[in-house]
Write a structure and sequence with these properties.
The chain has nine helices and no strands. With 182 residues, it is mainly alpha-helical. The protein has three domains: 52 residues, no CATH class; 38 residues, no CATH class; 38 residues, no CATH class. Helix 1 packs across helix 2 and helix 2 packs across helix 3. The longest helix is centred in the N-terminal third of the chain and has 15 residues. The protein starts with 9 loop residues before the first helix and ends with a helix.
């Protein structure tokens, strides 16, 4: 049995969406699979069908391609704050549980003048072209987002800022662990 991946184009999404509306069906996995089979002219494997159903669920239910970003607790708090400022109400299940950042706002503005801090180094100063850190930096993939070796990048930054102080290593913790540690 030969199977072919289906490209999830706007046309396919619209046809599946139209079929769901015409059938009066909710976008459940079963209904999506039925609509996909009806709208497809090729045979697809179970794994491919599952992939397509997940893509359609992300597209048709909730926040679409923003779902992953909105699932981040830090992002949902910011989105919930913006929704409150604009009086929108909650737009998805992700930001429904976001905690608006109300404590950062004051009832009245603070109009006290401030003194700008002048930089202690020239802003047009460039890093030296040679040296161990410059050579190590050449190993980093910086032309694509999030492709650089994070460990190497952190070590380069640490050494350039902290000098010979021992590198502490990468430490990660959940928001709950951070709150408990306070």
């Amino acid at each position: 049995m030969n199977t072919v991946p289906i490209a999830m184009t706007d046309a396919v999404i619209e046809r599946v969406q139209r079929r769901l509306v015409d059938d009066g069906a909710e976008p459940t996995p079963t209904a999506l699979a039925r609509a996909l089979r009806a709208e497809s002219t090729v045979l697809v494997s179970d794994a491919e069908m599952l992939r397509l159903i997940r893509m359609l669920q992300r597209e048709l239910v909730g926040a679409g391609p923003l779902a992953e970003l909105l699932a981040d607790p830090n992002t949902t708090d910011v989105v919930a704050t913006i929704e409150d400022i604009l009086g929108l109400g909650r737009m998805s299940q992700f930001d429904h549980y976001g905690r608006p950042l109300r404590e950062i706002w004051e009832a009245t503005p603070d109009l006290t003048p401030y003194t700008a801090i002048r930089p202690s180094v020239p802003l047009d100063e460039k890093n030296p072209r040679r040296g161990a850190l410059a050579e190590a930096s050449k190993m980093l993939v910086l032309d694509k987002v999030d492709m650089a070796d994070e460990e190497l990048f952190n070590r380069i930054l640490w050494k350039s800022i902290k000098g010979d102080a021992p590198f502490p290593g990468t430490k990660r913790m959940s928001a709950l662990e951070a709150k408990i540690a306070q």
